[in-house]
Design goal:
single chain, about 180 residues, three-stranded antiparallel beta sheet, 7 helices, 3 strands, flat
Length: about 180
Amino acid sequence: MPWAALDDQFHANPKVVAAGLDGAGLYARSISYSANYLTDGFVPEGWARETAPKRLHSRLVSVGLWDRDDDLGGYWIHDYLRFNPTRVDIEKKRLEAAERKRKSRERHDGVTPSVTRDNPRDSHESHSEARAQSRPGARPTPLTPEEPKDFEDEELLESGVHEISRLAQDIGRKL
């Protein structure tokens, strides 16, 4: 997924300030649109019309954030390619990543070792043991639920119910 750069000084850029909040919003959305569709900074007239009123298009042109292109029927985001990668660069990186992944799958017979079922590094026991080792004195937490136990001592059960009831009353008084 491509990304778009938005300068950390965006909020204070004189052109952005002059565009106003609604103009700044349209400008930021146009940067996102261009990154998403890999348009290299071009914003088609149709998208601009659907997104905001014509007066905002004119405002972005007048403050220098957009440049009108009547031949293509839209706008160019001023300096977009100065801060963002080109479509060609993004597609090249995608191809390189796909090739890297393909070669990795070939080396591992199409399966990445860390996600295989039989790999002991991924067993619940090893994760539990690792957690226990990271907390000195802690016992491993079982990841499988225990079988429910029947209460053989009715008196113990009854005292637990009374204790919970008493605590609930105490909490109610404090509220």
